């Protein structure tokens, strides 16, 4: 009889341990999904209905040229680890008014937004204005 009680007590402990372990695993999984959610900028884009599921990468570089009619600019961009090497590339610009504030030679920081419909620059910020050419005599 004592042996049966010990076995049933042991089985109850094992079931209790399994339930506890499963609960801990479930809580860890839930925590991972909420902590590793989309960035604030991605959430804002999703709230606007823009580029759901788009990826954003920080770009720093120098403006080479601006083409207002096509709402684009060429940027000599620094390398973006895990995404692309340093290169000069043409980018569409989401906000055309940003082009009015820039000139060739300006140092910028922006986000490359890559979605199903292609890629474009967003959140363009001027880091350093290009040096003014010295007047000739």
Q: What is the helix fraction of residues, given as a range?
A: 25-40%
Query: Secondary-structure element order, as H and E?
Result: HHEEEHEE
Q: How many DSSP H or I helices?
A: 3
- The rough form would be described as globular
CATH topology of the largest domain, by name, is: OB fold (Dihydrolipoamide Acetyltransferase, E2P)
Determine the structural class based on helices, strands and strand pairing.
alpha+beta
Q: pLDDT under 50 segments (min length 5)?
A: 22-49
CATH superfamily of the largest domain: Copper binding periplasmic protein CusF
Radius of gyration, taken over Cα atoms and rounded to an integer in Å: 27 Å
Short synopsis of the structure:
This protein has 137 residues and is α+β, with helices and mostly antiparallel strands. The chain is built from three helices and five strands. Strands 3-2-1-4-5 form a five-stranded antiparallel β-sheet, with no helix packed on it.
């Amino acid at each position: 009889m004592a042996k049966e009680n010990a076995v049933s007590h042991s089985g109850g402990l094992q079931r209790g341990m399994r339930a506890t372990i499963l609960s801990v695993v479930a809580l860890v999984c839930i925590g991972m999904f909420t902590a590793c959610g989309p960035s604030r900028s991605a959430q804002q884009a999703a709230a606007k209905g823009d580029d759901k599921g788009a990826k954003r990468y920080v770009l720093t570089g120098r403006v080479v040229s601006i083409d207002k009619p096509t709402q684009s600019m060429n940027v000599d961009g620094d390398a973006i680890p895990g995404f692309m090497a340093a290169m000069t590339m043409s980018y569409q610009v989401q906000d055309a008014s940003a082009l009015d504030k820039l000139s060739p030679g300006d140092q910028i920081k922006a986000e490359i937004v890559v979605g199903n419909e292609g890629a474009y620059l967003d959140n363009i910020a001027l880091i350093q204005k290009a040096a003014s050419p010295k007047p000739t005599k």
